[in-house]
Amino acid sequence: MCNRFSLTAELSELTEDFRIDSVRVPYSRRYNIAPTQQIPIIQQIGELRCLNQQRWGLMPYWGKNSVHANLETIGERKYLRSMLMKKRCVVPCSGFYIWKQEGKSKAAWRVVHRTKSTFAIPGIFDVWLDSEKNEYPMCTVITSGSAFDTDHPLPVMLDERSMDVWLDPEEKRTERLQTLLRALPEADFRTYPVTPFVENVAWETPDCIAEIVPSLALAKI
Length: 221
Hints:
This protein is an alpha+beta fold.
């Protein structure tokens, strides 16, 4: 997963597919979600599975903004391991963007699942407190390996059963949780070229997800 993704499901579709009990934030379809923005997330609060929002990108004391957590090393950092045990969420995603090198330039491509219009990416989160004890939740998504011959991390996916376990606050066994996290084969995805303007975080229209002819995309640069 690069640093852009989309969530284009209607709210009714999202609540049904993810069995959401409570919508706690305003929701709108998003076409070009970027780091540091507030993003829709799903978390378990008491008995309810809730649609909420969090800042995309951790601000840990030991490093820079982190929008990805690598599956292979997540257990090696105490900070991340603690979140894995206690603070888990799901990031619903309709597709994500990657950039492929084509000659001397890079072209933008969108990656979608072949059978799922929206899929579940596991996330972990933390809550930052300001001087007045106001809470600011922030999350990162879990990835494994690279996507489609690029250096962009490939997100991990959760099926319905795994998502139930992932969101269960009573489950704290890191070994059990890590067994849920498996990168799906690239064959499960489809890629297609999109407008190069998706690189601009201000470009937030349905044009972002429209498939285009690569030659036309290069002509617009």
